[in-house]
User: Fold this.
Amino acid sequence: MSSLYAGNIRISIFGQSHSRAIGVVIDGLPAGHSLDLDALQAFMARRSPAQNPLGTPRKETDAFEILSGVVNGRLCGAPLALEIRNRDAHSADYAPLEHRPRPGHADYTARLRYGGYEDKSGGGHFSGRLTAPLCAAGGIILQLLREQGVEIAGQALEIGGIRGRAFDPMAPEIHQIPAGPLPALEKGEAMAEAIQAARSQGDSLGGVIECAAVGFPAGIGDPMFDGLENRIARCVFAVPAVKGLEFGAGFDVARLRGSENNDPFCWENGRVSARSNHAGGILGGISTGLPILFRAAIKPTPSIALPQNTVDLQTGENVEIRIGGRHDPCIVPRAVPCLEAAAAIALYDAYLERNREA
Amino acid sequence: MSSLYAGNIRISIFGQSHSRAIGVVIDGLPAGHSLDLDALQAFMARRSPAQNPLGTPRKETDAFEILSGVVNGRLCGAPLALEIRNRDAHSADYAPLEHRPRPGHADYTARLRYGGYEDKSGGGHFSGRLTAPLCAAGGIILQLLREQGVEIAGQALEIGGIRGRAFDPMAPEIHQIPAGPLPALEKGEAMAEAIQAARSQGDSLGGVIECAAVGFPAGIGDPMFDGLENRIARCVFAVPAVKGLEFGAGFDVARLRGSENNDPFCWENGRVSARSNHAGGILGGISTGLPILFRAAIKPTPSIALPQNTVDLQTGENVEIRIGGRHDPCIVPRAVPCLEAAAAIALYDAYLERNREA
Amino acid sequence: MSSLYAGNIRISIFGQSHSRAIGVVIDGLPAGHSLDLDALQAFMARRSPAQNPLGTPRKETDAFEILSGVVNGRLCGAPLALEIRNRDAHSADYAPLEHRPRPGHADYTARLRYGGYEDKSGGGHFSGRLTAPLCAAGGIILQLLREQGVEIAGQALEIGGIRGRAFDPMAPEIHQIPAGPLPALEKGEAMAEAIQAARSQGDSLGGVIECAAVGFPAGIGDPMFDGLENRIARCVFAVPAVKGLEFGAGFDVARLRGSENNDPFCWENGRVSARSNHAGGILGGISTGLPILFRAAIKPTPSIALPQNTVDLQTGENVEIRIGGRHDPCIVPRAVPCLEAAAAIALYDAYLERNREA
Amino acid sequence: MSSLYAGNIRISIFGQSHSRAIGVVIDGLPAGHSLDLDALQAFMARRSPAQNPLGTPRKETDAFEILSGVVNGRLCGAPLALEIRNRDAHSADYAPLEHRPRPGHADYTARLRYGGYEDKSGGGHFSGRLTAPLCAAGGIILQLLREQGVEIAGQALEIGGIRGRAFDPMAPEIHQIPAGPLPALEKGEAMAEAIQAARSQGDSLGGVIECAAVGFPAGIGDPMFDGLENRIARCVFAVPAVKGLEFGAGFDVARLRGSENNDPFCWENGRVSARSNHAGGILGGISTGLPILFRAAIKPTPSIALPQNTVDLQTGENVEIRIGGRHDPCIVPRAVPCLEAAAAIALYDAYLERNREA
Assistant:
């Protein structure tokens, strides 16, 4: 397994859906910064199902305990370890499916990968629950970035075919995203209704999340394998259900000409800026100083109440299954803070890289 | 800089557009495999501008020399170093633009990153020319994968708004891609005409490349940060001009319901297969055994002959520039082998990870 | 901080002497192996002060809890997280020394490194207590190695100038090491008396530990930066107090001639062996198949009861301090399992490297 | 293979004794620094056999070519690639020994590791010749360190049982080391005579090298796996023939009491210093500000003219061989710059780590 991000910041995530605990060790945090635990709890609550009427009825509160790395409220330079105990786990829900892999889930591939020894309960290490420690790590790093004037915020841009309003690429309206269960600049109510409708039909919806980082300094990032796009991609695809990622104009570049897509540089208030931001704030893997913008495609939750076809790996038969348990009809709302966390990790890692050579 | 991929296979790329040489060191190749140098040269020729009527008139032949790592035609286990001497470099072409960053290029961001000491000639280390050593590394690894029964092939799916036919996700027609300058299952001629038209207008075109890996064993890949999607993303975004990446149904998942998007498992000839492949052959970061499919958005070449607005960093003025030199009006055709190479590196790296734990 | 070993096996250690917990995350363990928790507890008990009459009176039992990575007693492929709660911590003991760095400890250097924000209580992350999670990781890996027929054992070769009998380099007597508080082939009692004498004098003793790995297959290891010596060194110097490391004949090679030091190969029972083992089982960074042998120099415990000179960082004065608290007069006995653990991690990592390329 | 050091600085070494070229790629060098190529050539000449009357008659001049990473004499931020063409290679010398592994060399272990496909000529990738690119990398980094006021110098402390004078640990006499073929503070002539005597007897000698780094700032280094000792060890053991390594008092700590070994801190000229330096300038893996001191044991050159016993891997017989070719009777003098290079890489890597978090 490689649930480790070993860059300038090192993040080692552990746990299974129903193990004693899940958590994360972060190695490489700078000593001295104050940690705002309330803000961290609030950030993690946005991911937590407990407070989201659109989400699963599972009542995990994601209460965390910091085991090390903090003294008197400040980072002490030693690795920060944080754990979340698993308390509301219903392993029995999964027993009937032990040999009948759920379509769209990692049950089958994990079985091949780990020879049947993988933790099958609740999706094991592949559970969306493992995004809680990812959010914890990202939430801590967001605090470090905010001290540098960097803000990262995401919104639900599209759910179930209902598309809201995209950020202004030159000035993303990150402070206008409504609080509440469905963070969308526009059409949040319609999206919420579509989710409820899908739930009542025993089905699920996919969507698109848009994420913006504002205030990230120009000149950070690296060529080739460690460009900002590469780093962000490595972290964003760590969130299960992401199947696509685009920066700036993204796939639309396929229909643009060079004369349209190039962002002309210009002087603005004595600083270099550009007249457009098709590049999503990144050229050659390095930040331009304009907002960094990306969108991620989120697949519909694979766990649905409708009957599905699959195989029985013991009997060799094609079978129909129904998935019990408690599931989100759409994970887009809860995935928004996950992508913010992923972006924070990636950008901070690039930030440290630049630091190092200074 | 981080022009190093340091995974199970280690690939260190060096060089600038006009440095003495460009090249790559590959550390971690298994001893004993025969290297087919003709096949490698042929693979690299697909990227080379020399043989492509749609490309830049720059006549680099990308003739390479293997410096180490091969004895009597076989990998010897020591790091393989390969270099390509730069011979046809016209540095003078770039002098007038030294302080006037070209829109869409990394000139400005590299200047911030490297304090003005970066090699400005021909884009320096950020030049598309650096995809030659990437192709060399990928081309060697493709030979190793082929021995395992894995084939990787890409096609131009869309250029300048002209969209060809996508691969059949269950059985990508990788052997039907026409040889020649524009590898597209369909509408290759129309695409080629659009490129020529853009060239005559002094402009450039973007597009979409689709890539398929067939025969890759099921059960390879890892969760979280090292899923196949993460690994492929890390390598694909190393190819300059890629601004988006999607797997399987990709961004279309946003409009699919769970009941539509989930690929139902089924028994087929005594093996587990699935009735569809929206997952692009990857679940939970691990291969399903179905074809692995991804598409990448390629931006239009930023170097265009049309006048463009930019800034003069010395005088503080907004200025208009015209870019001389020799450039591709569309890099999609030449980028196809680059993405095949990127995919090969990523998949092979995951393959070695699996090996290790066996 | 870099309390992370990120090789083929990834080990992330966290905690401070008096933090809520200390522990380790191990990422990359193969699924399916049974874990013998009693054997692990017994291994860790050898390091624990609780059971050692020669050690500190601190009564940590090092009771661990496995948080993840194990299902039904078997490794499940997900990262294994293990924590040890800190219960018997007397932080107050350290308050008087907050600005008066203890000689021989990391107090002063950690303060420079972490700007005064480091956890000062009990040595923080630099405490010898952090070898408990190292032992946990090594103890688990030792079980994996044992399944492959590899045994690793260490002994106290020298304490306070009393030197016992070194292992036979061709056939280390690892099964003759006496159990009990002082594992030494010879003169263990005299060593124990010397320790007690030093304790009564308020002083401490250093020593030499010798470690042997038997049954490690030939042909494992790598050249240059990842030879077995390099790997073992990287792990052994992770144990605080190690100030020297030598393999095979070690520093004695300085006085040997090539004709003496070279180990002549010979056929033995149809296999290649050698007539001597000055190489300590390693040539070119790769195992020869003979026992792997190394010795590490362990400095005397820096915490002593005798008065010592140091500085007051606040007042700028030279001062005399007396260190209270509970300390080992000699850590050699307890460091033996730590070095076994370090060797296990290093050798297993090399083993996986070889596997990967197979 | 892992001839890659992938830390904050990334160093990828390639080549075999008789391959087209040997060389190194350094990724992560800061842009802007001037490179003094004459100084680099002079540094590498100290390792080169060409100029050393005590060395092998092989006349490699180690003339290098910088392929990339430097523009107008300054580092440009792109990876620096440097190659040395192999011209004076006599592969035929090695043919008779193809199946008869030389004692003390890596012939046998490499064969196991690489399945017989390894380059056998001249020791292949395991040749001491590969220390040339290591010296190149270290020589470049030494220039960067010198700009920060850091100087690193080594001396032959002992050869063939003749021991010179060790550095003063508080103030190493690095400027008193005589230039010339045998850099030793004392008894250099006697050492040189012993080498000549060994040569005339067809034998070889080992020794001890002592190395000091002066001016390295206090507060740099990391705990656990990335302490200065660990980093230095990882690089020093990359030099073939090193079989032992000790810091400060080293193995003598085994005979010291805590009250003797602890270095009492004291104020000196308004700064914190210490009254002794048994720690070798390192506490808790972090620099104290005092000189960093280590000694490495160098085994006698395994290639000797005297007949030796070994096996024939084809016939299964015990045989006697005589090694032809041209070899050093003692590599200590030429290894001195190699260890300086290794130390430079390790210290610089730690320096960058500290930088990053600032």
In short: Residues 332-357 of chain C form the longest helix (26 residues).
